[in-house]
Amino acid sequence: MSEQVLKLGIPAGSLQEATGHLFARAGYRLTYVSRSYYPTIDDPEIHCTLIRPQEMGRYVQDGSLDCGLTGYDWILETDAKVVELTELVFSKVSRRPVRWVLAVPNDSPIQSVQDLQGKRIATEVVNLTRRWLAQHGVTAHVEFSWGATEVKPPRLADAIVEVTETGSSLRANNLRIVAELLQSTTRFIANDQACADAWKKRKMDDLILMLKGAMAAEGKIGLKLNVRVADKEKVLAVLREHPKTSLNSPTVAPLTDPAWVALETIIDEDIVRHIMPQLYQAGGRGIVEYPLNKIIE
Known about the structure:
The chain is α/β, with parallel strands linked by helices.
């Protein structure tokens, strides 16, 4: 066992649970211990620390951590000098980017960014908001919000810049979106020193490979079936009718009985109930569906 250790930052807060699930699918058992900021992981060469995404870039930049997961938004907000090794598109409730948006009360006269001149804006991303306003030639009072930002308009602020995935919280607080500032996804970041260390770089590359493999397998399953040679083209025609039924093309292999072949493919899980009956009608037999944990191309 190597005596070297990779210091990995795990995002605390809204991304914490989703990160744990992703690591589990990638083959790492990440365990959060109550009242501890040091999760355990079943790899003695990795040491984990729970850090809020807002601070991750700073600690990776200064070498306190070798690498970590954080949002692109927080890299920009803190102006962190880090290396982005890969993008991992996952968030608290979806596999879509989160959006930082400008929102105002439904009855507000504010209709565009130009209407913000001289107004008060509450947000957690003060620097990002100020830069965005400057790009539009607008001067406004931007103040930091410690939370519950949606409840501040109209009494405590004229507008807010807030992160959203579905927009449900904004709608629940009678707010409407005026503009979008940024779309953000999770990034795996590291510092220059860790990237220059051959052992740490390989360790990070291996971890990223497994994480991306787990994400690639999400929503997909494998299918195996046997088919008579005489029916092979009919079965292949069924697969061709459905987009994304395999990574490249189905694998076809001979069986001990020369009149039959085995076929294996990968398909989107949401079309299984449609395609399996069609495969059977086309001559497929012994059809087996199996789950996928990782796909590494």
